[in-house]
Amino acid sequence: MTRPLTMRSWLALATALLVVATWPDSGQSLPQGAPETVCDTLLPYHSGGSVLPQNSVSPFKVETSSSTLGQGQTLRVDLTGVPAGLSFGGYMIQARNRNPPHQIVGQFGPARDGTIKLMNCENSVNNSATHSNAGPKQQVLLEWQSPVDFLGQVVFNATIAQSYNEFWVGVPSQPVQIVRRDVSGPSLPTLAPTPNLGTTRAPYVPPSYVAPNNVAAVTADPIYNGCGQSKNCFGFPDGCVASKSCTSITVVTVRGDVYEFEIQSGKGTNAAYVAVGLSDDAKMGEDLTTECVPENGRVNLYSSLTSASPYAAVRSDVNQNSARLLDASIVDGVIYCRVQRDVVTNVKGRTFDLRNGKYHLLVASGSSLKENSVGYHDIGRLPSAQSINLAEVQDLGGSSKLLVQLHGAFMIAAWIGTTSLGIIFARYFKQTWVGSQSCGKDQWFAWHRLLMVTTWSLTVAAYVLIWVELKRAVWHAHSIIGLITVILCFIQPIGALFRPGPNDKKRPYFNWGHWLGGNLAHILGIVTIFFSVKLPKAELPEWMDWILVSFVVVHVLVHLIFSIGLCLNHWQVTGMASERHLSQRANTFQMGDISHHQQHGMRNGMSMERKMDAPYAAMRKGLLGVYSVVLFLFVVVLILLVVLAPIEQFLGKS
């Protein structure tokens, strides 16, 4: 006779059934997939610390369809065995930021056949995935969408269980670079948006990562071996080859008629491409360019011809068979490719002859791509100082940007600084510092003339400098409006030399013409500076526009305040003159002397006004002092942006 089951026996039986139901030894997994309680650890639910993960190399791998992906785009993620055909039961997978705090990013898409269960880890929707059935499987295909607000590298980490006792935690993929993408075509397929609900969980460090203090010292990059001895090396920032710390580098090796180019991006640059151009003049435009672009899990090679206005690298102009990809890789975000180019390449009637020609090397890299083209070289760009025959090995330095920087600095000092202040003096300070003179001239005129002569000198010098640099005319909005500004600036002082006398009937026409020419030149000068921000050669940050907008707002407000003060002055002086006129009429006894007394009194009043400052002089002087300080700060900041361009690269080094 059997004994009835006690409460303890029932509990033991239920516990055993629960354990078997989670990750059974038959290779099947938790029937409904991993619970969200394991989001941080990726440990199988049945483990509980009693069953440890395998520490051997995983027989399974995580592969992605691309190593570079634009924001908001999708890629395919494959879970497979090595060798192919090896089956597994359960899995869980996430994509995490490769850098601290290693947060989960992006979201997975549902499978049409319902074989994938989506999970909401860290209070975000569909950012992890697990199995929905416990059956054996040889491959799992998932779709993952990158975030629209994330730039950097992500790594997919998966836990894959082959059986109850055999599972591998944190099986990593190769890093995937998320870059900005500028596509002016049909919109790309996207998944449903993922709300960001925030999290209070501690950050999770994927098992495959090692803390920096445990990493062995990195050996020197072999790409620098032989530089200046057996091959030409050139990169940016200038001088980086000697320190072996280039943000981007190209290496040219010549063996007979074999011309090999190695191109490599730097670590941590988030580069979407790296490229080298062969240029006749070290300036953007009409350059034969070799591009290395990671796409769909591999590094692709493209040849293009650049144009400067508008900036573009056009691939359709170049025979893509004129260069061959010999080797390529992308490891830890570092793009590398080795390319062999034809000795002679003909492009749109131009011949690039590597054997007999001399060329500047132009290295560039950027963090974004366009449709059928690379994006702007926002990471950096640098041409070599001299053109060389590629077979002649020598040390190369970067092209000097001194003339361009001086041109920009002089124009900013002239049209943001001295012109703005000179106009203020001429318009609002004719009745201030009355009786005080410099060099025999009223103070307002002395300062106005000094500031405008400085503007004229800086403008002419800047225009000569840019012509020396370019050696040719380049027509775009900046150059056209700038030329008009220079012409107006040049004729202003010449017109002033022929101004009519104060009582000449033509003097009003001169005054209006001088006022119109000066203000028009000032406005066009500022517009020209706005257009310079977009020039590739200037390498200015886009946010410089906001500094210029801020200056315009401050300048307009100061004009408004001074104009209000001018109106108040006029009303007060008019009222005082009227009071004097009434007083003189009341005290005049002889009718025939009214006209004489009135004219005499008004002349005395006007003489008195000319000998004293107009009302609110203290306010005008105070506002002028504040405006001068603010204007000086604007000029200093803008000149620093020009001289230290590209400022992002400068800040990255400091």
List the helices and strands and how they pair.
Blueprint: H1 7-22, E1 60-64, E2 68-70, E3 74-81, E4 90-97, E5 107-108, E6 116-119, E7 128-131, E8 139-145, E9 152-161, E10 167-172, E11 176-182, E12 232-236, H2 240-243, E13 248-255, E14 258-265, E15 273-279, E16 288-295, E17 298-308, E18 311-314, E19 323-331, E20 334-341, E21 344-347, E22 350-353, E23 360-366, E24 368-370, E25 373-374, E26 380-383, H3 402-428, E27 437-438, E28 441-442, H4 443-470, H5 477-497, H6 507-532, H7 544-586, H8 594-610, H9 617-643, H10 647-653
Parallel strand pairs: 2-11, 11-24
Antiparallel strand pairs: 1-3, 3-8, 4-7, 4-9, 5-8, 6-7, 9-10, 9-11, 12-13, 13-14, 14-20, 15-16, 15-23, 16-17, 17-18, 19-20, 21-22, 23-26, 24-25, 27-28
Helix pairs in contact: 3-4, 3-6, 3-7, 3-9, 4-5, 5-6, 7-8, 7-9
Transmembrane segments: 409-429, 450-468, 474-498, 510-531, 543-568, 624-647
Domain Reelin: 24-193
Protein name: Ferric-chelate reductase 1 homolog isoform X1
Task: Report the structural category.
Answer: alpha+beta
Low-confidence stretches: 1-29, 183-190, 192-218, 585-609
Q: Please give the CATH class of the largest domain.
A: Mainly Alpha
Under the CATH scheme, the architecture of the largest domain is Up-down Bundle
The third-level CATH topology of the largest domain is: Four Helix Bundle (Hemerythrin (Met), subunit A)
Radius of gyration: 37 Å
